[in-house]
Amino acid sequence: MIELDDAIAKIRTQIATADLTRQTQGKPIDPVWFNRARTAQRHLYRERAELLADGSGWHRRNKMKDALIDILRARHDPAVWAELLAEARACTEAEDL
After folding, report:
1. Could you give the CA distance from residue 1 to residue 64 in angstroms, rounded to a whole number?
2. Global pTM?
3. Which residues contact 19 (CB under 8 A, 6 or more apart)?
4. SS3 track for the chain
5. pLDDT tens sequence across 21-40
6. How far is CA 44 from CA 8, 10, 16, 35, 52, in A?
7. pLDDT by residue (tens digit) across 75-93?
């Protein structure tokens, strides 16, 4: 997902740069290049949408974390669970997450 987002951002930046060049220098954007860039961008957006619809990526990872939390909470008494949560909070605060 991150690689797709990076590729989309790169194409977006290239298109914006070409448009700025067009505006400042008065040179037209190469229509063949522009069409290829937009087509590549559409394909990347579609691939990203398919991954999200598949349940992979961010949503799938969150489901996994939720399941893991449920399992661990059921296996530990409330006092131990509170200690684990405190330790996890301390780690995230230390890492500024």
Report:
1. 17
2. 0.52
3. 29
4. CHHHHHHHHHHHHHHHHHHHHHHHHCCCCCHHHHHHHHHHHHHHHHHHHHHHHHCCCHHHHHHHHHHHHHHHHHHCCHHHHHHHHHHHHHHHHHHCC
5. 999 998 888 999 999 999 99
6. 7, 11, 17, 14, 12
7. 989 999 899 889 988 888 8
